[in-house]
Design goal:
globular; 8-stranded mixed sheet; 33% helix
Length: 393
């Protein structure tokens, strides 16, 4: 029977050398927040790196000994699913632990907060060593490749040279793909869930709206709001509302909310207060999110995921995958319109054209992009079998 990894603490590690970035700048004194689950084998060959999506952090599994004001388990109806344990549970707890998809009886699972984050890893809210003040909008623009470069430098400090797998959903899946391209001889397999080789224009547009809502909030103060007593919570809340809706599907919203009113038997003729359950739900999501997430980090990570394009600099996606050595598992969900199944199918086609081992599974599920957080039970046997087959090659 699958179990929990138990109580865990987030740890921190400082990189010993400056980190070069795609934009041409370097970051000094980079700190990485991380957690580990399971036992590292004597040969150090059982490591799985788990990469999180935009709103995640290093706390991927188990119960945090110091839970925050709001949890990171952002899947649709997470609170009703998780109960009072939700704030302490890791964002992918259903997938990581003894007997689970990423089985900690077999693997040493490592999860880091990505570069540019606000949950312990160096990002815009961190202190700039050159000024002694938070970076704010002086933080350099980072890319998915920069995030992977940071993860590689972090693993070097731990003495881990090779990865049995890199896995993630959404932005985490982009990192897994980038790992296979940047370090082809250091990754045995990648698990790419509800992700893409490049966000399609509609996704780019929704992310642009979310960023604009933050930057047009007067409290953003050109990104230097730290210590002023005022933060762009209003703009950040709207960004979260926009983002959250893109993670869902029309059928899921219809099933959960329909046109039910929130507070009365009939409309109240108000423009200031939410009338419908779905409006109240979005306001709740916004209020919870601003308690735990930094607006500048949202700007930087949103920009990084829109920049990601696996084929950039190549004649084709197949050419971009020419050096990939990892086995690839792709999982997509039928109702995900933000990271649509067509994107995973395109990755599969390109990998096959490049002669690389790949398998693709499309799961029919109604919850939109959030399926990667909600459909854990249906993903687990697929991931377990894929990893097991890799172990016996």
């Amino acid at each position: 029977m699958a179990g929990s990894v138990g109580s865990v603490d987030t740890r921190f590690l400082e990189l010993p050398a400056p980190l070069p970035l795609d934009c041409g700048r370097e970051l000094h004194s980079v700190r990485v927040a991380y957690e580990t689950y399971g036992t590292l084998s004597p040969a150090r060959d059982n490591v799985i790196l788990v990469c999180h999506a935009l709103s995640g952090d290093a706390h991927a599994a188990g119960l945090s000994s110091t839970p925050g004001e709001a949890g990171t388990r952002d899947g649709f109806a997470a609170e009703s699913r998780d109960g009072t344990a939700g704030k302490a549970l890791g964002w992918w707890d259903g997938m990581i632990g003894p007997g689970k998809a990423f089985d900690t009886d077999l693997y040493y699972v490592v999860s880091t907060n990505l570069l540019g984050g606000c949950r312990g890893t160096t990002g815009p809210s961190s202190i700039n060593p050159e000024t002694g003040k938070p970076y704010g909008s002086d933080f350099p623009v980072v890319t998915v490749a920069d995030m992977v470069r940071c993860e590689r430098a972090f693993l070097d400090v731990l003495g881990i040279e090779r990865l049995a797998a890199v896995a993630g959903g959404s932005l985490g899946g982009m990192q897994a793909l980038q790992w296979a391209m940047s370090y082809p001889d250091q990754v045995d397999s990648i698990v790419v869930i509800a992700s893409t080789h490049g966000l399609h224009p509609q996704g780019v547009a929704w992310n642009a709206i979310a960023r604009e809502s933050i930057m047009r909030d007067p409290a953003w103060q050109d990104g230097h709001y730290y210590g002023t007593g005022s933060a762009p919570d209003a703009g950040m809340g709207v960004a979260r509302m926009v983002g959250h809706i893109t993670y869902l599907s029309a059928p899921a919203l219809e099933d959960r909310f329909a046109r039910r009113l929130q507070f009365a038997d009939d409309i109240r003729y108000t423009i200031r207060e939410p009338e419908f359950e779905v409006e109240s739900y979005l306001r709740h999501q916004a209020n919870s999110f601003v308690k735990r997430f930094d607006a500048n980090t949202y700007l930087y990570l949103s920009r990084a995921l829109t920049y990601f394009d696996a084929a950039r600099g190549h004649k084709s996606l197949a050419e971009a995958f020419a050096e990939v050595e990892a086995r690839t598992l792709l999982i997509a969900f039928s109702s995900d319109w933000l990271y649509p199944p067509a994107a995973s199918a395109a990755i599969e086609e390109a990998l096959r054209e490049a002669g690389k081992p790949v398998e693709y599974h499309l799961i029919d599920a109604p919850y939109g992009h959030d399926c990667f957080l909600l459909e854990e039970a249906r993903q687990t046997p697929i991931v377990r079998r894929f990893l097991n087959e890799g172990d016996h090659e």
